[in-house]
# Entry
Amino acid sequence: MEEIEQLRRRWLARIAEADGADALEAVRVAALGKKGEISLRMRELGRMTPEERQSAGPALNALKDEIDAALKARKAALDDAALEARLAEEWLDVTLPARPRPRGTVHPVSQVMEELTAIFADMGFAVAEGPQIETDWHNFDALNIPPEHPARQEHDTFFMHRAEGDNRPPHVLRTHTSPVQIRAMQAQGAPLRVIAPGRVYRMDMDQTHTPMFHQVEGLAVDREISMAQLKWTLEEFCRAFFEVETVELRFRASHFPFTEPSAEVDIRCSWADGQLRIGEGEDWMEILGSGMVHPRVLEAGGIDPAAWQGFAFGMGIDRIAMLKYGIPDLRAFFESDLRWLRHYGFAALDRPDLAGGLSR
Ligand code: DAH
# Structure
């Protein structure tokens, strides 16, 4: 019996030491294989006396079972360890690392252009464009502002140089987006509905003026276009843009050479506690000029004023951006101060749309 106990210890130790599938298989063959030590011992039972066999038989059988079980347990443990090792080695990170927030921001002017483009697109207006270096004719004459017209002086125009001896009127940096009306009519004919946001230039610089600023022009031409439709369009725009349910607009008779009749439009607001609120209060703030397109302007655009009519409006983008987002100083818009841009800028990937909200 002593001998069986030694056998047991030796084989269990060898099993425990086997450090891989091959080593373990070698141990199994050496113990339980045809010529394995335990198998040989079992065979020896046949040569024993019945008494010897009676005590050695069950002990050997039990040892064989125990070794068999130990082999199986060791095999399972080695398999688990091999799988663990493989998993660790072949591990693939399928998660995305957190990306740093983009540091760039969308300038409030760009944001507002996107916003108003979304609003007017919803009302069927396409975006039209024109050059910033414009002909004198598109910027003035075609808009019913002939050379001697006093409105020319009011525009503080930047003129481009002409070559010596070239007596044609010089090109100008466009003083408003209205010339895009002419270009859109010439390019598309009637009916049409466009807005034209963009840069304009005037020789002017103080707290509320910069030599370059932004306007958006609107133009709708059709068989029967009325002042009432102009009013509705502007009210809808203001409601959507300022994100308030009630807006009240006031149309004041005015004069622009390119519209007849003309109106300047004020929006109801309050300045209580130095904070501007749109749609309530007793104050009025001018936000745009508008009117029914002058027949001569339709003609200059190649459209028959006897058959078509239209409304137009022009609005300062920087100004409505300041109003909506509470930005006090216009000049800061164009100083490219990073701190200002980070403070007033908009997240780069949030595109304004009517369904998702304009200014999240
Ligand atoms: N062009 C004008 C300006 O710069 C604004 C304007 C007024 C545009 C009336 C229009 C309009 O289309 O109908 O002051």
Summary: The chain has two domains: 2-89, 105-347. The mean pLDDT is 91.
